[in-house]
Amino acid sequence: xxxxYRNAVILRFTEFESGFCAEALNEAIHKxxxxxxxxxxxxxxxxxxxxxxxxxxxGLRISMDGKGRFLDNIFVERLWRSLKYECVYLYAWxxxxxxxxxVKKWVAFYNHKRPHSALGGQPPAVIYWQRNETTQPGQQVQxxx
Length: 145
Hints:
With 145 residues, this protein is mainly α. The chain has 6 helices and 2 strands.
C-alpha cells in the first residue's frame, strides 16, 4: 500500500485482505499522520466498509482508479520492480524471517538513502519531512540523519 506520500511507509507480511489493509492504514496514520488523499484501485479490500469507513473517519479524500487504469499505478509498479531487482532476486533467503528482514532493510534504504532522480537526487523521506515540518499533537516525529 502506498499513499499519496509516494513513500513506502509500512511493510507488513500477511494476507492482503480488507482487515489487513485497514490495520496497515491505522498503523501508518498513527505513526505518520493522515495524508490528504488516499488513492487505491477498485479491489474489494479498498471498497469494503472497514476500509472506506476508516478513511472517512480520518477525514481523507478517497480516490479510486478506473478499471484498467494501469498508468495510475506507475509509481507503485516502479517500486515493486525496484524491490524485486535490487533486493529479492539478489538473495536466496532460507527462511521467511530472513526474507522479511532483508526486504525491511531494503525499504529503509529506499526511503532514507537511495537517491531518486524524480526528487532531485534526494531520497523520499528527506522530501517528505521537508514538506511536513508541522505535525499533529501526539504524532511521532522521525528525522532523517
